[in-house]
Amino acid sequence: MVDLDARPPATPFSERTGLLGVRVMEAINVSLFEVSKGRVGGTIWGSPVVLLRVSGRRSGIRRTKPLLALPDGDAWILVGSRGGTTEHPDWYRNLLAYEAQETQGVISTYDGQPLAAPVVTWAGDHHAPVRAEVLHGEERERWWARLVAVYPKFASYQQRASDRLIPVVRVTPVH
Length: 175
Prior knowledge:
Largest sheet: 6 strands, antiparallel, barrel
Number of helices: 4
Distance between the termini: 51 Å
Structural class: alpha+beta
Strand content: 25-35%
Mean pLDDT: 81
CATH class: Mainly Beta
């Protein structure tokens, strides 16, 4: 039997081809989640899945990503694993661009238009715009341990990610 956790870091080609399969599965998950109001695709490994809608930092195009999430009061804890690839996921970089726009007035879309606020949908049809905070230090490590307990493959993803520290992000609804 092959130990999949012992695989070496992915090559750029294998990362691209693997991500294609992930995108297809994500599209199916998002569709099922939305049609069933979260009854299908609303949990994975006993933890909630949220849909994160975020605008592209260059294109401004709104995309939806299904993400495993741990509740933190009114907020959600998300992990930017991207399957252990060497680059951060686009949704994470897009959240950072939105936060820069809000705090520093930096607008990065190709046409100079401001990015729309990110939105999280959970439990079917509950949704709210959110603010993102990247966790660091002890707080990140505490949430990382909880995320790995829910989905142990996150630990092997961190090994495969090489020098990239997989980000842990808190998204908090803006009321």
